[in-house]
Amino acid sequence: xxxxxxxxxxxxxxxxxxxxxxxxxxxxxxxxxxxxxxxxxxxxxxxxxxxxxxxxxxxxxxxxxxxxxxxxxxxxxxxxxxxxxxxxxxxxxxxxxxxxxxxxxxxxxxxxxxxxxxxxxxxxxxxxxxxxxxxxxxxxxxxxxxxxxxxxxxxxxxxxxxxxxxxxxxxxxxxxxxxxxxxxxxxxxxxxxxxxxxxxxxxxxxxxxxxxxxxxxxxxxxxxxxxxxxxxxxxxxxxxxxxxxxxxxxxxxxxxxxxxxxxx
Length: 264
Description:
Order of helices and strands: EHEHEHEHEHEHEHEHH
CATH architecture: Alpha-Beta Barrel
Binding site for a divalent metal cation 2: 134, 159
Strand content: 15-25%
Binding site for a divalent metal cation 1: 10, 12, 97, 209
Strand order of the largest sheet: 1-2-3-4-5-6-7-8
Keywords: Hydrolase, Metal-binding
CATH topology: TIM Barrel
Shape: globular
Helix content: 40-55%
Pfam families: TatD_DNase
GO molecular function: DNA nuclease activity; hydrolase activity, acting on ester bonds; metal ion binding
């Protein structure tokens, strides 16, 4: 058992903010964490995530194209590249980070984002892998898509959940998971904590989204997976339970959702 006994289900360990001390960070995390899933955002970062997962026993990888990076897709062969990574590397446990982002106006048009999301979800279903969903300022389209455009059997986690409680209830009906990270610790984010408090205990996981979105009391600093501890302690406070229970339950949930972990 690691020091914390928890899993960070969403990290970006290939980010250049770790370049100066990555080896030291990883050595510490090997003692702290039960597991970390590092996410791809392009083909190149997906390759980097796979390499990191193969270098460290406790790290697993997700591969995918983030909605902010879709302009980098030059033709339809991109999906074959992701499929090859997922099929050839046992430590790929999800397709992600994928989704919709309507916040940045320079992103690809909505119809392109929806097409790429559909293609990557179809790949995940074909490979029996879960999808890790980014949803920013696209709540209506995201909910409609997952209610109508994917098989009910597809396993889904909405990372860094930012939608309403009403939307969350619709997602829970389909057995979808929600990921909670640093934003759930921010004092002005009552909506997220409301959802966290109401979430069925079998349908949420912990994450950091590091190096972004460090939790309180580290807001504004570089985030890393060890700070999942503070996310978990906040979840315990919000839900009126112990950190030990949160750690045990969310680890069980992560193993269920990302069921290739520890079998790779």
